[in-house]
Amino acid sequence: MHQAELDEWSRRDGPLHRRDARAKLLVLLAYLVALATVNTVTPLAAAGFAALLGLAVALSRLPAGGLAWRAAAVAPFVVVFTVASWVAGEPARAMALLLRSYLSAVAVLIVVGTTPLPLLLKGIEHLGGPRFLITVVQILYRYLFVLSEQAQHMRLAAASRGAAGKGWQANRARFKAAAGAVAVLFARSYARAQTIHRAMLARGYQGVLPSLRANRWQAADWAFLTVGLLLCVSLRLALEYAG
Amino acid sequence: MPDKLAPQPLIEVSQLRYRYEDGTLALDGVDFTLYPGETVALLGPNGSGKTTFVLHLNGLLEGEGRITVCGLPLNKENLPAIRSKVGLLFQDPDEQLFMPTVLDEVAFGPLCQGRSEQEARMRAQAALQKVGMAAGAHKAPYHLSAGEKRRVALAAVLACEPEILVLDEPTTYLDPPGQSELLALLSRLPQAKIIVTHDTLFAEAIAHRAVFFYRGKIIAHGSVAELRQRFGWSARATSFTPAR
Fold first, then answer.
1. What residue ranges do the domains of chain B occupy?
2. Strands, sheet with B72-73, edge to edge from the N-terminal-most edge strand
3. Chain B residues touching residue A1 (CB < 8 angstroms)
4. How high is the ipTM of this complex?
5. What is the mean pLDDT of residues A153-165?
6. Which residue from A129, A151, A119, A95 is spatially nearest to A19, judged by alpha carbons?
7. C-alpha to C-alpha distance for B224 and B90, rounded to whole angstroms
8. Contact B1, B168 (CB under 8 A)
9. In the predicted model, is pLDDT for residue A20 greater than 50?
10. Which of A27, B109, B143, B148 shows the smallest number of beta carbons within 10 Å?
11. Are B60 and A206 a contacting pair at CB < 8 A?
12. CATH superfamily of B11-231
């Protein structure tokens, strides 16, 4: 099975991996608030926020290039507004939008890449996140792998029956097969969802998805949280003072 | 006068009928009894009603007729108690393993039963130990092989400490060594078992007796060897015709 790279990163061992998910989430929140409330993203501000991320990347031991590349996933959503602002004669605003989005994406990726999703979701739950939403994300994440594997099997089955050819005819056949595959995948997913629900009921499920607490708060988490919050607040105040 | 020495049945099913929403009559008057310590194999063609039948045993489907589990009539009031007594192992472990980690998965049942977190954790660890998966407690289910998933699914059922194990096609997705390991593991478990299977060799190795389903009815009882011989029920390229 093809595992997502982020999932693999999150299961490595590094100084940031060992920190409690709640501490990382709170520092992330402070970082995002600090970044979002800066009036203008000057080169100095951008450098300051980037430096904080550099520190986090060093602690995470994640590949900086991989993080930078994956964070570019926000580009399609942001570029449209950036270009619109630029064309409207507001280049500073356009750059601020681009930088804010990109730096935020890197920050979120660092947290996701250093925290296995189950622990991250538990962290969100312990911080008061809505339980229903967390349950939906948890089940979605669990079965995303199963569904993607099923989709791959169907793609291989289509290819083995000649859908891998070239040319207009083959493209048409491929499109037709893909449309059919989506319908089949939906029907299978629906049937699977029913069976999963039965499996949950069979073990006493009564509407709440209980789980064991895995996050353990340690002294180092207090230290990390304090330093992280201080750095974010100090940077924000320094920029306020400088601006 | 009832025999006081005869063991009380764990499961008694009388005249069970079930029709799916599309009108298909899946069960047509099934009578069945399971005694303590017994292992019974359910044999029969695809679509003959075996899985539909076992889904009734802990109330996942509701048909007409009478079902009693450990002396409790199957009804809404008794459902939580009955679900803790009947452990159901599904055919596809991917459909049974829905929690993010193996330990969470196995602790799910005890937590749903209202056990404390500490007790649920202890039960989960003990069940994982029993199936030889203690080392994989913190893995994600999608990182496991088919055999490991099957073991974890079984541990998830065992952690609920059921009195009856119902296994739907337990050898599916397992290679021959995996099947042997499962056989050895199941043989060590003291619970009474109902096993839905097409694998007559597996059934013969573990089941004390078997029943044969055909078109929603149990049409024969006997040993696995007898039923295999009577219905020609083995892996051969021949057409099936029920011999009565």
1. 11-231
2. B25-34, B11-19, B64-69, B72-73
3. 142
4. 0.79
5. 71
6. A119
7. 22
8. no
9. yes
10. B143
11. no
12. P-loop containing nucleotide triphosphate hydrolases (3.40.50.300)
Taking any CB pair shorter than 8 Å as contact, residues of chain A touching chain B are 1, 3, 7, 116-118, 121, 138-139, 141-143, 145-146, 192, 195-196, 198-206, 209-214
* pLDDT tens, position by position, B15-55: 999 999 889 999 999 999 999 999 999 999 999 999 999 99
Yes or no, beta carbons of A202 and B88 under 8 Å apart: yes
pLDDT in tens, B116-173: 989 999 999 999 998 889 998 988 887 788 889 989 999 999 999 999 999 999 988 8
Nearest 5 degrees, angle CA B220-CA B223-CA B226? 75
Helix, strand, coil tally for chain A in percent (to 5)? 80, 0, 20
Task: List C-alpha distances in Å: A168 to A163, A179, A180.
Answer: 12, 17, 18
pLDDT confidence band for B179 (50 / 70 / 90): confident
What is the SS3 string spanning A101-151? HHHHHHHHHHHHHHCCHHHHHHHHHHCCCCHHHHHHHHHHHHHHHHHHHHH
Closest CA to B105 of B88, B127, B87: B127
Using pLDDT thresholds of 50, 70 and 90, give the confidence band for residue A122.
Answer: confident
Domain range annotation of chain A: 5-127+215-242, 151-202
- Non-local CB neighbours of B127 within 8 Å, separated by 6+ positions: B106, B155, B156, B158, B159
pTM of the model: 0.72
Q: Which two tokens stand for residue A33?
A: 């608030």
Residues 6+ away with beta carbon under 8 Å from B169:
B91, B196, B197, B198
Q: CB distance A202–B60 less than 8 Å?
A: yes
